[in-house]
Structure formats: structure tokens, C-alpha cells
Amino acid sequence: MKYYLKENFHLLYADGNIYDENDRAVYRYENTTLMFPQIDLYKYGERVGHVKKNFSWFLRNYDLYLDDVNVDTLQQEFTWFKSELTLERHGWTIKGDFFSWDYQIYDENGDMIADMNQELFRLTKHFTINIFDEDNEELIILLVLAINQFDKDRDSATSSSAAASNH
């Protein structure tokens, strides 16, 4: 199944829709917190899950909830030039390219179950999401939202440290 994430433009929080191939909004997400984001996911108007950022000093991690049950934690792995993330309990590995524009999601057997590709030259974030394991569709959508938040957190930390070093 192919989906398209289209983020709306806001200065202080993120929200948007995830559309199917027929341009119908299937999912909606919203994040209204600033310091420790919690992103709520709605499918056809009904809340189906959320992503919650955890406080940590070094590596970032995000709890994923389906129907208010913590199903897994997205954990950042220490790597030098590529983004590598894992889902602890499921044994999934998420690999991103150097620029964090494209990610591939692999299950515990090493089979690709989804990928996401950022569309460039947009004012807001736009992704194409290909889901090959439809049994885990909602978890994969939550994972995409967590990866998007991970990128934003990393980018803001990078720009903050760059600004601090210029003073």
C-alpha cells in the first residue's frame, strides 16, 4: 500500500494528513507539545495511537502506542554517518541515508517491510510511504511519524549547537 504524508505549515507544532493512492485522507496526526512531543494518530477521525518522545541525554528514543498500549520503543543507535534506529521488541531495523531523506524498515528476518522517501523542494515535509507488510500498517505509520520527529529533533539540536558555537 502506498501513502503520502503531507505536513501542514505551523510555527510551533506539526500536524498533517496521510493520504492513500486515491488522495483520500486516511490518517491525521497532530502534535501540540513543544519540549517532549506527543504525536496523536487518528484513522478516519478515531484515535488509534500516539508517539511519545522520552527524555534522554545522549541517544533519542520514542515510545509507540497503539490503542494506549505501549507496543515498542524506537531507539537511536550510535552510528557515524547514517541514521540507524531500531524497534526493540519487534527486532526491526530502520536505516536512513546520510541526508535522512530516505529510510528503509526491515523486520527481524531482514526483509524490507516499508520505505519512506522525502519529497524535496517543499515548504513542509512530504513523504511517500510504501508499506509491504499491511498487517503492521498502523505501527509502520506511527514509526514514520516517530522518524519524522527524530529528524526534527536532530536538526534542531544541530542548529542549536551551531548557533552556540558562533557566539
Per CATH, what is the topology? Answer: Porin
CATH class: Mainly Beta
Low-confidence runs of at least 5 consecutive residues: 159-167
Secondary structure: helix percent: 10-25%
The rough form would be described as: globular
Strand order of the largest sheet: 1-2-3-4-5-6-7-8-9-10-11-12
Number of strands: 12
Helix count, DSSP H or I runs of 4 or more residues: 1
Average the pLDDT over all residues and give the rounded result. 84
H and E string: EEEEEEEEEEEEH
- What's the domain count? 1
Write the CATH architecture name: Beta Barrel
Q: Describe the biggest sheet?
A: 12 strands, antiparallel, barrel
Give the strand content: 35-45%
Rg, alpha carbons: 15 Å
What does this structure look like?
With 167 residues, the chain is an alpha+beta fold. The chain has a single domain, classed as Porin (Beta Barrel), CATH 2.40.160. It contains one helix and twelve strands. It has a twelve-stranded antiparallel beta barrel. Strand 9 and strand 10 form a beta hairpin.
SSE arrangement:
Elements (H helix, E strand, L loop, with lengths): L1 E6 L6 E6 L5 E7 L6 E6 L2 E9 L6 E6 L2 E8 L7 E4 L4 E5 L5 E5 L5 E7 L7 E6 L5 H29 L2
Antiparallel strand pairs: 1-2, 1-12, 2-3, 3-4, 4-5, 5-6, 6-7, 7-8, 8-9, 9-10, 10-11, 11-12
